[in-house]
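Q: For a teaching handout, I want to show students what a protein-ligand complex looks like in token form. Below are the inputs, and the small molecule is magnesium ion. Please produce the holo structure.
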Amino acid sequence: MSDPILEARNVSRHFSVGGTLFRKPDTLRAVQDVSLSVQPGETLAIVGESGCGKSTLARMLMRLITPTSGELFFEGRHIESISGDDLTKLRGEMQFIFQDPFSSLNPRMSVGKLVGEPLETQRPDLSAKDRRAKVSELLAQVGLRPEHANRYPHEFSGGQRQRIGIARALASGPKLIIGDEPVSALDVSVQAQVVNLLADLKEQLGLTLVVIAHDLAVIRHMSDRVAVMYLGGIVEEGPCDRIFETPQHPYTMALLSAIPEAEYGIERQQIELSGETPSPIDPPPGCRFHTRCPFARERCRTEVPALRDAGPHHRAACHFFEEIASETGAPARLPEPRSAAAESRFSLYADALAGAPVRPREPET
Ligand SMILES: Nc1ncnc2c1ncn2[C@@H]1O[C@H](COP(=O)(O)OP(=O)(O)OP(=O)(O)O)[C@@H](O)[C@H]1O
Ligand SMILES: [Mg+2]
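A: Here is the structure, written as tokens, with magnesium ion included.
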């Protein structure tokens, strides 16, 4: 592998919660000791159930919040030591796409202003005329029309607003885009269009993507690598195909069990979890997953499992994954055909991966 574009080393982020005049606040461990690297040109997906720390991790990666401990590197440079003009440049090179495009776009700014604003900081060399031309080019790149520059965010559909958010992110010429659930607020058909768009832009512009997503079908079709989080930590990480076809961590197996086989064409043993996710204020000792793991043993209650090799570029944090894998057996592929709904989504994603032109949504009037 080449040098990572982004690297997190043992980062944690704690929040103080619930303190009053008479009571000391509790420490909530939103992210705990996460190490992760992102290779240039890849799409890394971060998955895990609500509250496991995905957004907190993404915000730290973007330098929107600072880690309580640990270090972050962008292209080998320590992020916290970057300041002044270099920081402005870094902010342009890393861009964020939000889940809710509406709340992230200033409703009083026209689309032209919204997309042109980052150009004013990142490309002060451009004249007003060149900037307008660049805005038109960016709008075309995301499947919008030049005349959309004169309209305001409320005049657009959800999918179009997300396109505006993407054009704004592209304006500063980023190398890396982090999307926090960039499509989960959209209708399924629109989700596929935006997923296609991101995949196309990634190819055209040589971008690196980090995507947080709930929908495992989206992840399966967008990402090269997947990191699975549970209660603030990464429990498994590896190439997308390996994670879906030979998951090693029981939590990943349970996550995959939750989606119908027909959705992704692989048959596997169903693993059901008991109980609730523990609170990040009082995480269990040992393996953080042991309270819900159907395979947990004594060692899991006391000893924290390290993320260790589970195959090529594949790591899992479980003391017993070898035994569990032989117990649960290798998953078998299901015969075709898949369900009609799954089939239409697969073909949409497949088009995007094959570099087919993006089909912009017709503007709603
Ligand atoms: N600013 C904050 N102050 C206190 N607690 C916070 C703060 N931000 C996040 N948390 C807590 O940290 C934990 C992780 O939150 P985070 O938003 O990172 O989860 P998530 O995986 O993105 O969840 P979701 O899928 O619901 O978006 C949660 O328990 C959350 O309540
Ligand atoms: Mg979140």
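A: Two things your students might notice: The two ends are 48 Å apart (CA to CA). Confidence is low (pLDDT under 50) at residues 355-365.
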